[in-house]
Each structure stands twice: as structure tokens, then as C-alpha cells.
Amino acid sequence: MSLGQQLHPHLPFLRRYARALTGDQIHGDAYVRATLEAIVAAPEEFPAGVDPRLGLYKIFHAIWSSSHLDDGPAVIGPDGQEAIAQARLGRLTPLPRQALLLTALEGFTIEDVAYLISMDADEVEALVEEALSAIESQTRAKVLIIEDEPIIAMDIETIVRDLGHEVTAIAVTREDAVREAMAQRPGLVLADIQLADDSSGIDAVKDILGEFSVPVIFITAFPERLLTGERPEPTFLITKPFQRSTVKAAISQALFFDEATAPA
């Protein structure tokens, strides 16, 4: 099996991570594209003796760490042709949050993350604890949940409330979601893709975003269907079935970027 064939199943999930890391689909996808260009240009430099997914994320992190340090365009890629417009420094994801995303969202072990970011396992554990502590002090938000499965909706509601956020409503259809969003504007939306009346959570979110801006986390059992690299697509995405830690990390990261861009 070729290297490309080995890496292909992992690309949707690298896109998910890159978007969560950068808080933006365009920038996240640009880093993924630069990673693939680097691999194509020098396949012999792909990490040997490790799982292909681990090697893919290792190349990604090498590019991320070497190109996101300046507040301005960074030119990367084998031919120097790929320019990624950088967010301001306040929007850059700090190392503790990177460690949390890699463990909670992507499911890597502490040892895997230590390899990916070139640190000791003890240091990674300390970073994750630091990120979790930061979550506790995060600004509280009003959250709209769009989910038609009662048990899943209750589980999400519990997680959201345990984090100290307020649940404004649980909507089960597109129409319900839009009505509830207009009645009490949420600071965050968590949306399932397929809703009770065969309406779409994506369409519901588009309707809401047509009225006001709000960070959105999509929840789906088939993330690869939404992570093709085309636009528009979700920036934050949780896979069903999910772990509580995954939802917690995604909520925190979405609000992190929302707070970073809020007027002072």
C-alpha cells in the first residue's frame, strides 16, 4: 500500500484538528494542504517506524510550529508558494490547548502527544492539566442545543451545565432551532446534523448565522462526510459516540476563539 493510501483515511480528522487548532476552516485547511505538499515533496522524510496517522500529525506539527510564530503571512510549502494569512497573536492556540485537543478531541495517548510536540510525557500531562484549569475560569456562555435524540440531548445538556454554562433550549427541528435562537440569542450552538423531522442541523445553523454571528460545534456520526476540504464546512466537529472530555475540549476551544475576537 502506498503512503498516500495509508494517509488518506486520516485526512478528514487532521482537517478537524487543524480547524479546531486555528479556529478557522480556511487557515486550518491551508495548514493541512501545506502538510501534504511537504510529504509529496519529500516522502523519504516521512517518519519511519510509527503509525501513519502519528507520522502525518508529526509533519503537520512541524509545519505549524515553524510557521505560526509571526503575526503576519507565513510562507510555507516545498516551493514557498503557499501563504497562510496568520491570525493575530491573541488567537494562536497555546501549547496547553494543543495538548488537550490532541488527547481529548483526537484520542492520542499522552505518549503519542509527547512524540508529536517533542516533549516528555510528564510535561504533556502538566500541559493538559493547565488547559483544564484554564477552562474553569473561562467566560460562561448561553448555549443552544440542537439535537433530536433525547438521551444524547440530556447528556450534552449535563456536560454543558457541569462546565458552568447555561442551556437556553433544546431544539429538535430546524424550525424549533431558529425560533429558540431568535428568542434568546445563544453564545454557542451545539448542533446535530440530522434532525427529527428530516430537517438539517446544518440548514438550521445557516439560518441562525444569517441573523447573527455565533460559534457552532456540529455533532455527527459521520465526520468524514463533512470534512472533505470544500467550503463552507464546520470549524468545530464532534464525532458520535463522543466522550465527555471531547465535548468539553470542543466547547472550550470554540469559546476561546470567540473570546479572542470579542471587542475589548
Provide a descriptive summary of the structure in words.
The model is unreliable at 69-91 (pLDDT under 50). This protein has helices spanning 3-7, 11-22, 25-41, 52-67, 95-105, 110-117, 121-136, 150-162, 174-183, 201-209, 244-260; strands at 74-76, 82-84, 142-146, 166-171, 188-192, 216-220, 236-239. A 5-stranded parallel beta sheet has the order 4-3-5-6-7, with helices on both faces. Strands 1-2 form a two-stranded antiparallel ribbon. Strand 1 (74-76) and strand 2 form a beta hairpin. The longest helix has 17 residues, at 25-41. Helices cover 51% and strands 12% of the residues. It has 11 helices and 7 strands. The protein is globular and about 55 Å long. InterPro entries: CheY-like_superfamily, PhyR_sigma2, PhyR_sigma4, Sig_resp-reg_PhyR, Sig_transdc_resp-reg_receiver.
